[in-house]
Amino acid sequence: MIFEGREKCNNVFLEETTMGDALGLIETKGLVACIEAADAMCKAANVELIGYENVGSGLVTAMVKGDVGAVKAAVDSGVESAQRVGEVVTSLVIARPHNDINKIVIKHKA
To answer: With respect to CATH, is domain 6-108 assigned 3.40.50.11710?
Structure first.
């Protein structure tokens, strides 16, 4: 199952992320569009799905990590796929995120 919940949260992102890693996020309205985005991102490039967040009011954000080029390609593909089945609210690629970002990301690891 893609989204197993927060009970498996740990410091994997913090421990395995290198300075060259990028963080990619896609926020959608509804879980179906988010799953479509996550599937497309993982198939489009060499990225790892690191988690998701159910923001509330139907908004769900999927997060991936990998090298900058792969994350950009994955997010582009994920946005395109999610738009076919639902609504994309926003997307973002952070190249070399600051280490303190890990404090947020590890709380929402799948």
So the answer is: no
